[in-house]
Amino acid sequence: MPGTELFGDEERREVMEVLETGVLFRYGHEDRRRGRWKARGMEERVREYTGASHALAVSSGSTAVACALAAAGIGHGDEVIVPPFTYLATIEAVLLAGGLPVFADIDDTLCLNAEGIRAALSPNTRAVLLVHMCGAAADMDPIVDLCRERDLVLVEDAGQALGAWYHGRSVGRFGATGAFSFDFFKITTAGEGGVFVTDDETRFRLADSFADHGHDHIGGNRGMEQHPILGFNYRISELHAAVGLAQLRKLDAMRELKRANKAALRAAVEDLPGLGFRRMPDPEGDSGTFLNLLLPDVEAAARATEALRAAGVPGVNYWFTNMYHFINQWDHVKNLDAAAPLAIHSLGAPQDYRALQLPRAQDVIGRLISVGIGCSWEPDVTERIGSDLRSALVTVLG
Ligand SMILES: Cc1ncc(COP(=O)(O)O)c(C=O)c1O
Predict the structure, then answer these.
(1) Annotated catalytic sites, by residue?
(2) Whole-model pTM?
């Protein structure tokens, strides 16, 4: 958990600055806040880092995805292509926006690809909600070309991928809108938080209002602001933003440390027969958060998971059986169980979610083990983890 590994005086100082003024709200109160604007600071940093023209800090990665869909104009009755390997928030965001998720197959990039998207298209497809999984970018050129060719709105859920690039461009900047998460498990954390990005001023204005009950944020008198649209409360607090801001200043350093540790682990196992790795269209753009191993088959992956855990390798994830990240476990999604009626209940599902055919996803995720990479490991720790990783894998691969 990189961000949380490097908590220090920087985070404490930023939080104390907020507590000293007592202004925990991100808007207004200029008389008391002594020029301290943490959400604005977080947004400025994300703009600088990603190159996005606009950034909006919000309460979570989930609400950032909701903003990304709303600001891209996606809503009631729209078919949105989504991956079966992601965090549940991606699918929830589509359903709660009134959209109809259409699952497409993925490949060994762990993300949607142009081929899978093409196979899932229907005359009603409106958008692609692309997720950059496990800290690295999808294969963007063919996906962007396809979206242009078919006039599809591309929205990026880069919840797991701040610090990931594709040939010199940050993830989140290929589509109409993008979203990052700053939850407790991400490369940089705010405890809870997210950031919406776009290069389009109009879309930014929409997200800015949508995330704050429709306020237009013009005029400086909150009580008298206009409401051009309906919205909701997706605001981040200054306390969370203070932590996020301090963490963003460490992003480059954490990314470099993780990439180095990941390279060391990979070198320790690279020659093992039968072992493969997640394909990365731009390895230099990897944020380094996970070493993604591909075992020869599902049985080998399950056995290797046990062996790695028994050997004490930290951060071992086998998503195939994990309840959050892969469609096989999402019975409530497939059954469309919700506290209140969703648009899909009246419109009907565009696919039979209980009989989806996603053979490449089943194969790749069945064989995938992701090892989380630390950024605070001393060289001897990295070496020991590499050696444990190798010994455990050898018991399965021979
Ligand atoms: C791909 C993806 N999208 C969205 C989210 C939601 O982010 P949050 O937990 O900040 O709401 C996550 C969180 O894990 C994620 O992995």
Answers:
(1) 186
(2) 0.98
